[in-house]
Amino acid sequence: MVDPGTNGIRRVVVREDGISIEAVDVPKPAPAEALVHMTAAGVCGSDVHAARGRHPFVPLPYLPGHEIVGVVREVGAEVHSIRPGQRVVVEPTLPCWTCKMCTTGRENLCENLQFFGCGYPQGGMAELFSISADRLHPVPDELDERSAALIEPLSTPIHAARLAGGVKGKTVAILGAGTIGLLMLAVVRHQKAARVVITDVLADKRDRALRLGADVAIDASVADLSGEVRAALGQSADVVFDCVAVQPTVTAAIAMADKGGTVVVVGVPAAGVTVPLPVIQDHQIRIQGTATYLPVDFEDSISMLVTGSVNPDEIVTAQLPLVDASAAFELASSGHHVKVLLTNSTPPADAGPGQRSRGDQSERGRVGVDRAVAVLRRRSQARGYGSDSGGRVRAADAHAGGCRPELQAPLDRPVLVQTEQHAGGERVARTCRAAHLGMRYPHRTLAPRSAARRGSDASGSEMHDGKCRDTDGH
Predict the structure, then answer these.
(1) Residue 128 near residue 178, CB atoms below 8 Å
(2) What letter would DSSP give residue 62?
(3) pTM confidence score
């Protein structure tokens, strides 16, 4: 394990040869900045794209982490909007505030835009980071860390719906049932869309979308996807949100919106596509890009989460400690999870910026069998999933000696379970079995795939080594 010493921190770095943890000095906040202790960091679809060398605007190496929740540790002399000890969420756009876009209320399109955690000198997947205080929003006490970690990603579909002109009373199609697709579903349901159809190639994602309120979920690999969607809607789509953004989905989206509809490109395209321009012109089809969000979208996102319009249990499906970032990226790209979080326990208030208490160093490895079994049983019973033939979780499968199940996921999904032992300060990590799951998930490093191994199927979902993987993102 990387040891940052008494005056350093650990942070995640993504390079061409994989994902690792490095030790660096504690960042020093400028007069208008705050020093923030990260408590939760989401792995975004765009993070996975970038790690594979497929993000058009994030070159490798880079420091990831833009879906960030944390606690303010200290503030610069010019900061009066927030205070130490306050829980905050990061709005990662870093505008110049002087260009045409910034001075007309469109700072998300800043002509000199920098983006925290995406090609910026710092990212939020770090024990501590510094950032301009005006990019921090207070987190209401009603939201726990899992819910707060959804504020930033939920803001993206809120902004997309705003650019579409709202969806109340409209027919809506959503292409892709990954994180952004499911959050897009939550937004259009919240805004009272008349009918919503969602598509995905994976059956479990379609099932989850139906649980979350989709009227119909269609296999995206069917021969006539646009025809199936139009039939399920009973008419053409007023609005199509393409959360995949590859050639097949763009082509299908235009056909679904024909005539007079709007296609909103939400997913991050890995490359350019072609469009039937004569049809778009003659049939008055609107193609709308959408880029990140504005402060009003963050406000609406917080409101939706506080009122319970989003179920975090269905969205956050795995949590791992910061030091297991490589495994978290692997889970996020597996197709079996929606949102994967990295966590970092909060240090005591009197600990210095570079200090960690013994509890922070070793607490993660002290979860005993009794607690592990109790968590497994409780979640299994609450969600209706079984364990062994008698409905019991076996203590033997929880591995005595510090097994910690990362079980924000339903128990029929792959779950990474890590154990940690501390002997003389040395950390030993291994995978163990999650209750009734008869498989192991090794601690692997996610490395970029070569161009020869990439491809896409007719549905527009990326294919890697024969496994379909979600491509939505922001």
Answers:
(1) no
(2) B
(3) 0.73
User: CA–CA separation, 385 vs 250, rounded Å?
Assistant: 37
Distances (CA, A) of 452 to 165, 286, 461, 463: 41, 35, 17, 12
Q: Are 99 and 285 in contact (CB under 8 A)?
A: no
Q: List pLDDT tens digits, range 113-161.
A: 999 988 899 999 999 999 999 999 999 999 999 999 999 999 999 999 9
Cβ(159)–Cβ(295) under 8 Å?
no
Asked whether 24 and 9 are in contact (CB, 8 A), the reply is yes
DSSP 200: E
With beta carbons less than 8 A apart as the criterion, state whether 323 and 21 touch: yes
pLDDT in tens, 202-243: 999 999 999 999 999 999 999 999 999 999 999 999 999 999
Contact call for residues 113 and 96 (beta carbons, < 8 A): yes
Contact 156, 46 (CB under 8 A): no
Strand 239-242 to strand 216-219: parallel, antiparallel, or no bridges (unpaired)?
Answer: unpaired
Tokens of 196: 């919503």
Residues 1 and 356 sit within 8 Å (Cβ to Cβ): no
Q: Would you list the DSSP string of 316-372?
A: EEEEEEGGGHHHHHHHHTSSS-SEEEEE-PPPPTTS-TT---HHHHHGGGG--HHHH
β-pairing verdict for 467-469 and 462-464: antiparallel
Q: Which residues of 52-163 form beta strands (DSSP E)? A: 67-75, 87-90, 93-94, 114-115, 128-132, 136-138
Q: What are the DSSP calls for 206-271, one per residue?
A: HHHHHHTT-SEEEETTSTTHHHHHHHHHTS--SEEEESS-SHHHHHHHHHHTTTT-EEEE-S--SS
Instruction: Compute the 3-state secondary structure of the chain and give helix, strand, coil in percent, each to the nearest 5.
Output: 30, 25, 45
Asked whether the predicted pLDDT for residue 296 surpasses 90, the reply is: yes
Reduced to 3 states (helix: H, G, I; strand: E, B; else coil), residue 17 is coil
Evaluate the omega torsion of the peptide bond into residue 248 and state whether it is cis, within 30 degrees of 0.
Answer: no
Residues 6+ apart with CB under 8 A from 127: 4, 9, 10, 11, 37, 38, 322, 344, 356
